[in-house]
Specification:
Strand order of the largest sheet: 4-3-6-7-8
CATH architecture of one domain: Sandwich
Number of helices: 5
Structural class: alpha+beta
Helix content: 40-55%
Oligomer: single chain
CATH class of one domain: Mainly Beta
CATH topology of one domain: Immunoglobulin-like
Length: about 325
Amino acid sequence: MPKKETGDNNHKKPEKPIFDAQTSLIHGDTPNSGKEHVGSETTASEATKPPKPRVINIGKIPKIDVIEGIEANKIAKSANKISRWSVIVSALLFAITLLIAYQAIRQSKAASDSVALARQTYLADSVYKRKTERLAKISDSLKFIRDTATFNLQRAELYKQIEALKEANKQFTIGNEPYLQLEDMVVTDFEPGKKFTISFNVFNLGNYPIKAIAGKAFWAVRRTDPTINYPALDTAKWRVMNKFIMKEIPEPFTVDDDLPVSAEKCYAIEKMGYFMWYGGIIKYQNLSTKEIKYYKYMMRIIPPKKTIYTLSENDKTTN
């Protein structure tokens, strides 16, 4: 409210208009317009009566406009807060996105490194495996060659040992093979008109015992050797002997003739240089090897005891 002035002059001075930014803005006035009114009022009071100034009473502004302004300010503040928080949230989301992207890139790089490492490991393992397999094959080949050489050497040595054993066995067999021989032959009663008797011992010169199975023999009076293939021997009958003869234990045998001796044969031996020939074959078995062999003999005799061997051999055949 304008103050009242005292004194002689009761003339009331015009009230200075109060500038309100909000009211002026509402009515379209500016702050300079108020100044212009004041200047013009001073000039007019000196010359002419100034026009009545326009006074705006703030108290007459409707309350709804004030409320709307306050609400607008609140809304603006809230909008500013929301905008600031939106920026913060956006910044946080952007930072989180960058962090997630960084983690994804790191994980991708780690995965790539793992794949590269796995590939290198696989390649290294493959190379090592191939190298190991080649070395194993080379080692197996060398072992096979060494084993083959050793086996061949051992086989050669074994063959030598086998041959040595065969030879030793052969010598052992030969050394122990039974060999028969007639000894101590005596002719008795070789006289005209008598039946003579021949007695002898059969010796086994080997280590293996034998069994004398059978034998056959012949005799003849002549100057030359009739040989073992004389026909009389072929026609002679086998006689069972069934005697066991061991080394150093001779077996005695006695052979009787069925016919008496003629005077011509006795005279031929005594006066004409003829001889009595006695030959035969003894069939026997080696009791160790079960082998059958034949002892062939031929003797030139001047009765009663003078004898000379012309044949004495052990063979596997009768001829």
